[in-house]
């Protein structure tokens, strides 16, 4: 017998909200920061290379830039965050998103 691959709702919820995945996303973002510094295009490239072993497509770069801008905008009014910390927080969300892509989770 052979089990067919399947994903259940709890798996998806755990990947989106679980403490382990959140911690791994933070570590992943720190690794990207160490590799790429403050340069946003290098951060995007590095994140895709580390997570998916490939460069992002031009559409993925545009979507990633949009996500980073949206996340920076959400945190811009928090007085306890500097612009650099806001950018790092946005990168965390990009890394978390990459860890939840089908390409990362499943091998063809």
What can you see in these coordinates?
By secondary structure, the protein is mainly alpha-helical. Helices cover 73% and strands 0% of the residues. It has six helices and no strands. The protein has helices at residues 9-17, 19-36, 40-52, 58-75, 83-99, 102-105. Helix 2 packs across helix 5. The protein is globular and about 55 Å long. The model has no long low-confidence stretch (mean pLDDT 91).
- Tally of alpha and pi helices: 6
Question: Looking at the chains present, what oligomeric state does this protein adopt?
Answer: single chain
Terminal CA distance: 20 Å
Largest sheet: none
Shape: globular
CA radius of gyration: 15 Å
Which secondary-structure class do the elements indicate? mainly alpha
User: Unreliable runs, pLDDT <50, ≥5 residues?
Assistant: none
- What's the rounded overall pLDDT mean? 91
| DSSP, total strands | 0
- What are the secondary-structure elements, in order, as H or E? HHHHHH
Approximate strand percentage: under 5%
Helix content: over 70%
Summarize the structure.
The protein is an all-alpha fold and 108 residues long.
List keywords for this structure.
108 residues; mainly alpha; 6 helices
Topology:
Layout: H1 9-17, H2 19-36, H3 40-52, H4 58-75, H5 83-99, H6 102-105
Helix pairs in contact: 1-2, 2-3, 2-5, 3-5, 4-5
